[in-house]
Amino acid sequence: MAQLHAARTSSTPSRHRSVVRIVAYAVLAAMAVLPLIPRTSQAHAARMTLTVGAKGFAENEIVANMYVLLLQHAHIPVNSQIKDNLASSVATPALRHGDIDIFPEYTGTGLEVILGQKAAHNTISYYDKVAAGYRARYDLIWLRPYPMNDTQGFATTHAFATQTGIYSIADMAAKASMVRLIVATEYLGRADGFPDLEKVYGPFKSRLKGLVLLQGVGSVRYAALLQGRGDVTAAFTTDPDIAAHHLVVLSDPKHYGPPDNLAPVVRNQALQAYPTLRLTLNQIASKITNPVITNLSNQVVTDHKDPRAVAQSFLQQHGFLK
Length: 322
Hints:
Layout: H1 22-31, H2 58-73, H3 88-97, E1 102-106, H4 107-114, H5 123-138, E2 140-142, E3 152-156, H6 158-164, H7 169-174, E4 180-184, H8 194-201, E5 210-214, H9 218-226, E6 232-236, H10 240-244, E7 248-249, E8 262-267, H11 268-273, H12 277-282, H13 290-301, H14 307-317
Parallel strand pairs: 4-5, 4-6
Antiparallel strand pairs: 1-8, 2-8, 3-6, 3-7
Helix pairs in contact: 2-14, 4-5, 13-14
């Protein structure tokens, strides 16, 4: 079982992540095209002040700050500061008890870690099952999921992809003799690491040109890739390093990793108190894609910009804020 998003600096990606199928992206984009929500005084609603929670890494903090800014713009009472550094195991009971009201969560984390369940490895199946489970067990509501899918995968340089024609995990398995693969040491024996990878794509580890085993955070693997010590590295598919270094994420045609799309999880009481809350948050759903979130995260991680400022600039550029 994966340590899903509990520690973003883990030395290897976790199993719950996979590349969204093209059809799933189309469905998610189509279902999330919404007009801007007009400001409202919400005079009829109970005047509860909402609180947004977040995990402790850039992409999640950026999205959580978007929620705060959107709610402020819609005149829905919300605390200006997010409650940060919340693991899913902490955030879920916090939502249930009303310590926070909104939390950007990942479908794979919610389904596998919190509910202890699995589904077919596609975006819609994971979302439908986690949404139904949270509603039934916790009275928590999943709003519309984003195309962004922070899943387990692999990345390489444009130069290597062009030279070898390796653009997918299937290509990598077929041309393993051309690849020096960078992974964390634990990835070799962990069930959701190489064993699962080879169940899906067939045995190829023994045919690799080389296996570069490293310890430490993901940045160590990216450094090894950029220094030429390996050709392909294990990655999270929304790592800011991908945008920072213009890397190629290998596609996953056989769906090795489970989906891990982001979506707002909201207390039902909050939705009942503020009827426009759902639409206010859903309006950005189609805009949060992998390229978008890797670029925004890169601004925070590499350029050292404030997550709130990055969120505000994005919302203004896309017309969600004046």
